[in-house]
Amino acid sequence: MPLTPEQQAEIDELRAGARPTLRAVSEGMEKHLYLPHQVLDHGFVRVIDYMGDDAAITQAARVSYGRGTKTVNTDEGLIRYLMRHWHSTPFEMCEVKFHVKLPVFVARQWIRHRTANVNEYSARYSILDREFYIPAPEHLSAQSATNRQGRGALLEGAEAARVLDILREDAMRSYDHYESMLSDDGQKGLARELARMNLPANIYTQWYWKVDLHNLFHFLRLRADAHAQYEIRAYAETMCRIVADWVPFAYSAFEDYRLGGMQLSAKGIAVLKRRLAGETVTEETSGMSKGEWREFESAWEA
C-alpha cells in the first residue's frame, strides 16, 4: 500500500475518533473518509473532507431550509431535472476535498481544470520519494496513427521490454543524480528548488484538491471518458465510485445524462429526423464536416 507509516497512523486515529454532528452526513461518503483507494502502481485517492449530500442540492434549488414535505422520489426527480437542463448552481452546494498521490505528468494534465483549490507537496522544501510510475505491460502502447494525442497498438515482446528498461533506468539514474546533488557530504549541496529540475515527469507528487460537485462532474465527464488518457482516467474512475456513494441521486443523473449520454447539434437533430422519416442521409448530404459525421455515426454503432 503506497502510504507511509505516519500516514497510516493518522488514518487509523481519524477513523477511530467518531464525533457527533448536526451537519448533513452522507452515510455512503462516511465509509470513504480518510481511506486510500490505490491507483496505478504507487498512487492513491482518498477523501479528507466533504460538505453536503443529495438533499443539499435540492434544498438549494428550492431555496428552502430542511426537507419540508418533499419526498425522496421528488428529490431524485428534481436532481434529474437540474442535470437534464444544465443547471449548475445547486450542485455547487456540495464540496469535497481529496488527497491525491499521482505522477507529475498526470498532475500537469489534471491542473488544466482551473476550478478547484490546490495545494501541492513542495519539492522546494521537501525531498521527493524514490517512486516512479512505470506502466503495466497492458498499458504500453505505440503512438496512434490517426490521433495525435492517443495510443495505438500494444507494444509486445522485445520492444515492450526495451521501453520498460529505459523507463526504469532513466528514472533511477535521475533520482541518483538528484540525491547526489542534494548531498552535503563533503560539499555544500545544491538547493532543493534547483535539484528537483532534473527529476523525470513520472515521479510521484501529492496534493490536496478541493472542488465543488458541479466542477467535479465536469472533470469526471472529460477524464472518465473512454478517450481520456488511461493514467488520468484511472483516477477519474476511482473518484466516480466514491461520488456514486456520496450523492447517489446526483451521480445517477450524471451517469445517465453526461457519461452515458450525448449532445446533438442542430445538424445532427435534422439528420436524425430525416432518417426517422425514411430518408437515406449520407455524409455528403448531411451538411456536416467529416469529423462531425464520423462522431455522429460512431454514436449509433453497436
The overall number of domains is 3
- CATH class category of the largest domain: Alpha Beta
How many DSSP E strands? 7
The whole-number mean of residue pLDDT values reads 90
Number of helices: 13
**Proportion of residues in β-strands:** 5-15%
Oligomeric grouping of the chains: single chain
Encode the helix/strand succession as letters.
HHEEHHEHEEEHHEHHHHHH
Give the termini distance in whole angstroms. 40 Å
Rg result: 24 Å
Widest sheet: strand ordering: 1-2-3-7-4
Shape: flat
CATH architecture of the largest domain: 2-Layer Sandwich
- Helical residue percent band: 40-55%
CATH topology name of the largest domain, in short, is Gyrase A, domain 2
> What's the story with the biggest beta sheet?
5 strands, antiparallel
Structural class: alpha+beta
Uncertain residue ranges: none
Enzyme class: transferase
InterPro entries: Thymidylate_synthase_ThyX (IPR003669), Thymidylate_synthase_ThyX_sf (IPR036098)
GO molecular function, one term: flavin adenine dinucleotide binding
Catalytic activity: dUMP + (6R)-5,10-methylene-5,6,7,8-tetrahydrofolate + NADPH + H(+) = dTMP + (6S)-5,6,7,8-tetrahydrofolate + NADP(+)
